[in-house]
Specification:
Length: 180
């Protein structure tokens, strides 16, 4: 049986659901990054000047990721589900960083699950049916190819792994400076 570079319909739905969860988990505060940065920069005693720079980098990359994920959800036949919340005035930077670390870890887990679903749910067909599916997919630009989906998810996994380390480093720097 020949394989087509396509994910099964049930696999597409499962991946879109997982990606929508990532939009809810990780990107709920996306529009608040400028506000968080403003609050941090307004604090006179920022012990580590890298924290605002790292948060700005995370915000920019998160905005890019959110767009990629939204587009992939649409290609998978879903509709992106956003849940943007306004945060209260930040009181404790350390707590905010720990909360962000939890979101990064949760997003990483969701991307890993989505990649596993993509790897395990490939359309299999032979002969004329295989050719027909390939032709239909080539004619439709919005079809999420399995290889492209796996590649996108692999990139998100790599970025989230790096984001987790960046946030851990910010937490450590904050803890060291605030205990002096």
């Amino acid at each position: 049986m020949s394989e087509v570079d396509r994910i099964t319909d049930s696999g597409e739905r499962a991946i879109a659901d997982l990606l929508n969860k990532s939009l809810q988990v990780e990107y709920g505060m996306l529009l608040n990054y400028p506000r968080i940065l403003d609050q941090i920069v307004s604090i006179d005693e920022i012990p580590d000047k890298l924290i605002p720079g790292n948060l700005e980098m995370l915000g920019k990359e998160s905005l890019k990721h959110a767009g990629m994920i939204g587009q992939l959800v649409v290609q998978l036949g879903g509709e992106p589900q956003w849940d943007i919340k306004v945060i209260d005035r930040m009181i404790d930077i350390g707590s905010m960083l720990v909360q962000q670390l939890g979101k990064e870890k949760a997003a990483l887990s969701l991307y890993q699950q989505a990649k596993l679903v993509a790897q395990q749910n490939q359309v299999k067909a032979k002969g004329f049916l295989s050719g027909l599916i390939k032709w239909r997919d080539e004619e439709s630009r919005d079809v999420a190819k399995r290889s492209d989906t796996i590649s996108t998810l692999s990139g998100l996994i790599n970025d989230e792994t790096r984001h987790i380390q960046v946030v851990k480093n910010m937490i450590a720097a904050w803890d060291i400076e605030t205990k002096k």
